[in-house]
Amino acid sequence: MAGSNEVNANEAKKVVPLNTWILISNFKLSYNMLRRPDGTFNRDLAEFLERKVPANTIPVDGVYSFDVVDRATNLLNRIYRQAVDNEAQWGIEELEKPLSTTEIVPVIIFFHGGSFTHSSANSAIYDTFCRRLAGICKAVVVSVNYRRSPEHRYPCAYDDGCAALKFVHSRSWLRSGKDSKVHVYLAGDSSGGNIAHHVAVRAAESGVEVLGNILLHPMFGGQERRESENRLDGKYFVTVQDRDWYWRAYLPEGEDRDHPACNIFGPRSLSLVGLNFPKTLAVVAGLDLSQDWQLAYVQGLENAGHEVKLLFLKQATIGFYFLPNNEHFHSLMEEIKSFVHSDC
Amino acid sequence: MGPYNSSVSAGSSSGSSSSCSGKPADPIDGLLAGAGYRVRSSELRQVAQRLARLENVMVNAPTEVSHLANDAVHYNPSDLASWVDSLLSELHQPEIAPDPSTFSDLNYIAHTQAGPVLVNPMVSHRELSAGTEIEEDSGIRLVHVLMTCAESVHRGELSLAASLIEELQGLLTSVDGERGIGKVAGYFIDALSRRVFAPPSPPSLAVSAFENTVLYHHFYEACPYLKFAHFTANQAILEAFDGHDCVHVIDFNLMHGLQWPALIQALALRPGGPPLLRLTGIGPPSPDGHDSLREIGLRLAELARSVNVRFAFRGVAASRLDDVKPWMLQVNPKEVIAVNSIMQLHKLLGSDPSRGSPIDPVLEWIRNLNPKIVMVVEQEANHNQPEFLDRFTEALHYYSTMFDSLEAYSAPLEKSLAEIHIQREICNVVCCEGLARVERHEPLDKWRDRLGGAGFTSLHLGSNAFKQASMLLTLFSAEGYCVEENEGCLTLGWHSRPLIAASAWQAMPVLQHPLPLINHRQNVI
């Protein structure tokens, strides 16, 4: 109804700065146009509308970036690193020496969000976010350009995530510390958070080391309708209907949301007890309709005996971290920074 | 909610390729700029209102949403305000007066942009080819010594450079010279040695115009860059010619006329029938009395006749574009003109920005023709920097990416010929100076400034052109090519590095004061 829609729009406007509201509303509206009721996706228009930026070997805010294609998979990874002070060395990337032989430099493999369907590693919003993350946390960030749905359904994104993990572990130039190894963390927002979880599970099962998981309002769900979904449906940029669409686009055809990719501790999921699963930092936005699923995830990890820290940001909406104009952004960065440096 | 302070510096644009809109007094929101959107801080509220309005309309008319997605043509999504407005007008929504009471009291800090945004050079990186570990190490060493050699050339230490070149030639033997870094390094070592060992006069890779066109033809076949250029240009020209009966295309570099059969056929098929088409093809004079321009013109005329398009061709022989005088084009006041420049304008640039360059009078006479459209396609690279080392580094990255994209092409002979075409560009960028250096590529943002300053206004290429260019790419087996929209222009690149940029322009009416940037929004606030 038009009336309730206006009420919803006004709700959201009260809790985010104006430019954030514009940014996320713009995504909401253009994404509405791109999703078709029959489950197909207008990829051409999506790519046209997507704002992309090239990598930057000239540092911006002390961080530079460059793209590397993993020849084994044809996957693009965008790497963000702290710039050296010597200007003469800008523009040249040797990919030879380790990051440091004395200190530990965390390498955060980042999976961008977009509900498995939207965005890329070179999307402007994610490029900017990764640059900030690298700069504030003094980490190297590797942003993965995983294959998206509906063209590439489950388990493509997880396969690509695992390939990226393997790629990162095998780069000598990402090593650091006296033990000369790659100190890897997995991170992601929305669908990226979901990917990080599943890659961590596979890594634990096959003995590949992941030091920690950072899940930023990760995309989880289930068949059941949770209280937060009903209460917050349509109020803060997201609707239950659009969530359903993205799950239908990602999960194998004919599957429902209790599929283990979606419902982590649901009826069809495998137990995580006894698995060498990394510690987790789970960030939940208090105005995200999916929060009950995310809180259930946190509880599930605890029940399985795994270390998890919950950062609950009561007045945050989805996408609060795209622009650094709010306190939630800064809380988030502080938490991530101490999370990846806690072992040093 | 109190005002939020941010300790992060304002307006870091992280490589956003936008330049500042308007004067510093009317700045754009720096944080949205970092997300790829240009919205004036003073207009945030109006844009928000219009977004809210658009949302209401979409909620109330779901079938309209599919129309917006499938039929409407979208332009320049970076300019959020006009994008939203164009959608509203597609949905026939009249303008509403801004209502301050719609917005609740929000405090926010607008991070504004003061001054122009730095255009950061796009330098993407190629990882060394994943061969054996030994090969990887050799490859790393190769790049290392290559850069050191370039540095010594830059500093004028030619004897050091010479010994490094010998070392490089030795290193080349331990890498695979057929692909990856070995291949690219080979060409750059060759170029450096021509510069270091050749006599002061420009090293001549001088080949006949005939060989030139053969190499060009193979480059055309082996990768989609030229096809993209022709395709996108033809689309835009076709649209510009819509509704006109007398049209004249001026092609700045005819070559084999590969671009034109498709346009002729498209004009033949247009609703309402084809116009009278004149084509003026500019090209170098042919040696030995042979008139190759005329031959190509004859072939095109035959094609036109076969599809019932009235056609007239004229060849203009000139070694350099600045030798062309407007009277040679014999422009008719009643006809509508399209100027087509595929990788030609950069040849007219000088290296000293403080002195006028040969391009200025050329842009002036183009403008005086009052063309309906000027299509400009250029290499998306910064190869006209004054310092040798910067050019060298940029070229190494650019051509590495280009060679990378070629690797998938299967026909080996044709691929080699295409590579020689590229090699000649590399040599020109690396070896030549002064008038001899014609491959003075500049990136899109510089072309925007230059053309804007010369009295041209941007014509945006829309989602329809984008979609068709993407479809063209699916015909190529190599996955990795990508088309991107860049503020009304389209670029084609390999794996997120744009390599070629297409833009469309129109002469501003002569009476108007030329402005650096034109805002095309229709609505009045």
From TrEMBL, chain A:
Gene Ontology biological process terms in this record: floral organ morphogenesis; fruit morphogenesis; gibberellic acid mediated signaling pathway; positive regulation of gibberellic acid mediated signaling pathway; raffinose family oligosaccharide biosynthetic process
Keywords carried by this UniProt record: Gibberellin signaling pathway, Hydrolase, Nucleus, Receptor
Q: Which residues form the signal peptide?
A: none
> Any idea where this protein resides?
Nucleus
Query: Any idea which GO molecular function terms this record carries?
Result: gibberellin binding; hydrolase activity
Where does this protein chiefly localize? nucleus
Q: Which PROSITE patterns match?
A: LIPASE_GDXG_HIS, LIPASE_GDXG_SER
Q: Which InterPro entries match?
A: AB_hydrolase_3, AB_hydrolase_fold, Carboxylest/Gibb_receptor, Lipase_GDXG_HIS_AS, Lipase_GDXG_put_SER_AS
| Alphabetized Gene3D superfamilies for the sequence | alpha/beta hydrolase
Domain Alpha/beta hydrolase fold-3: start-end pairs: 108-321
Q: Where is the active site?
A: S190
Quote the SUPFAM superfamilies the UniProt record gives: alpha/beta-Hydrolases
The GO cellular component terms are:
cytoplasm; nucleus
As for family, the record states: Belongs to the 'GDXG' lipolytic enzyme family.
Full protein name: Alpha/beta hydrolase fold-3 domain-containing protein
Phylogenetic classification of the source organism: Eukaryota, Viridiplantae, Streptophyta, Embryophyta, Tracheophyta
Automatic annotation (TrEMBL), chain B:
Region annotation (Leucine repeat II (LRII)) ranges: 295-327
Stored PROSITE patterns: GRAS
One term under GO cellular component? nucleus
Q: Which domain of life is it from?
A: Eukaryota
Transcription in keyword set: yes
What positions belong to coiled-coil segments?
Answer: none
Q: What name appears for this protein in its UniProt entry?
A: DELLA protein
User: From which source organism is this entry?
Assistant: Escallonia rubra
